[in-house]
Amino acid sequence: MRERFAYILALALLLVVSASSTALLGADPAPVAPVAPAPLDSAATQPAAKPAVVITVDGPIDDYTRDKMIRRFAQARALGAGTVVLQIDTYGGLVTAGLDMSRFLKAQNDLHVIAYVHDKAISAGAMIALACDEIVMSPSATIGDAAPISVAPTGQMQGLGAAERARAESPILADFRESAERNGYSPLLAEAMVAVGRVVYWLEGPGGQRQFVTEQEYNKLTAEGWKPVAGAPSPVDGPETLLTVHTGLATKLGLAKGQALTAESLAADRRLQILADLSPGAGEKFIEVLGSGIARTVLIVVFLLSLYIAMHTPGHGMAEAVAAISLCVLVGVPLLTGYAQWWEIVAIFVGMVLLALEIFVIPGFGVAGIIGTVLLLGGLIMTFVGNGPGMPGIWNLPAIQQGLRTGLTSVIVGLICSLVLAAWIRRYLPKVPFFNRLILTTTSGGRAETTPTGATLQDPNDIWPFAGTVGIATTDLRPGGEAEFPYADDRRTHHVVSDSGFVEAGTKIVVREARRFRVVVRPVT
User: In the 8-state DSSP scheme, what is residue 417?
Assistant: First the structure.
């Protein structure tokens, strides 16, 4: 019974399927609307633009530039960029900062970094460019010349032997070689940017193959029929030069993958959508200006002049505040950019403490004053010198020597200008509007006597107040302050320094020592 029922059910299903097939085959097909082909230049046939940002590296390469670049890469990731166009325009700078930037760029595995050499990538700039995934240059750009120290015409580094020279070049050569191998450049070309004496030829074989070779390989291959590549210099780099190439030759040599007028045109050629141009802002440019030699010379003048005024007119606060601010900028900016080290900052502050002790506590000008002056001026000079790599002959680095010259010039000019302005202030400040409010006016016997605060009144043949003169402290002496002394038939004020520490206002004091710029007193016992 069950078998018969299954047979009948299968037969019924077969009849239904046959009827459905017949109906479908006999029906007219539904009309299909024709689809017009999309034009070849429409957005549907082209890949979507890739998100990218432009980051600019220009000016001196230092710790501040390095930190700026690292922050910009973090911003690029936050914006969702997959490509970074690193626009480079620099003559280089600190070797240590350049190495840090190169290592950072090589670790950006999640970003494609294109170095766009806008005008020049010299020294540390070339190091940074080679560390990127590829290089594109403007039509008139230059790249190369990355020697870490000065080189004599004979190929010997000034003041260094062969072993010391090798140690100096070693970290730079290793970085350039690693970048070349990583990004498909010739290691010989990369090394020729760093070391003098690396002769590089570019040869073409009988079969059309091309190869960069050393001088020894050149002699061997030319004997086998190889010839220098037409249109390229031979050798590409000689024994007494560092490889430095313009855009056309860099493209031929395979260092650059193309040309672009601007970073924007590069992005357009690569179908990149620029999400943001992360160029340095006004604040960052202001920091760069404050770090320049001229600006720091002006700051030295302001600092020394304010210090002079503060010592001669204590208690007003304005001069002290200006001196403190100018000193903070003087040491803060080079500390930020990597030109100042902790020991230089310590030397400056220890020197100031010793000078303060010499002026306010220890009578005369002796060992403490000399050591303090040397520490203060030496520390200021050394803040102009970059942080060079630890190696023998570091003082022969051109950057170190240039920093010393700039620092010495700035400090000397600052001292001279400060002395001239201090003399002018002593003579003309009482006549200048607003500043004449700093002048103390004492009235005695119905007449007013106006005396510049801190001015030294003197007899034609001697200095007033004379040693042994008894007066009254008109302000607290901390240990500097003001005191009143008899002057002919009158009484006048003068800036004094206590050699006994703090003296309360109203205390009777006596002059122990009187010099043109300093009057030392102590309480009368």
Answer: H
How many other CB atoms sit within 10 Å of the CB of residue 181?
12
Enter the tokens of residue 150.
């000065």
CB 506 within 8 A of CB 473: yes
**Residue in 16, 7, 92 with CA at minimum distance from that of residue 57:** 92
Select from 102, 269, 90 the least CA-distant residue to 182.
Answer: 102
Tokens standing for 341?
């080290």
Decide: pTM greater than 0.70: no
Q: Which of 110, 74, 137, 108 is nearest to 263 (CA)?
A: 137
CB 403 within 8 A of CB 395: no
Question: Which of 155-159, 431-435, 477-481 is predicted least confidently?
Answer: 155-159
Which residues, in sequence order, are CB contacts of 197 under 8 Å at separation 6+? 155, 239, 240
Q: Give pLDDT tens digits for 151-205.
A: 333 333 444 455 556 666 788 899 999 999 999 999 999 999 988 888 999 999 9
The sign one gets for the Cα dihedral 351, 355, 357, 363 is: positive
Contact at 8 Å (CB) between 146 and 129? no
For the beta carbon of residue 344, count every other beta carbon within 10 angstroms: 21
Asked whether 393 and 366 are in contact (CB, 8 A), the reply is no
The CA distance from 484 to 492, in Å, is 5
Distance, CA of 56 to CA of 115 (rounded, Å)? 10
- By the 8 A CB rule, do 517 and 456 touch? yes
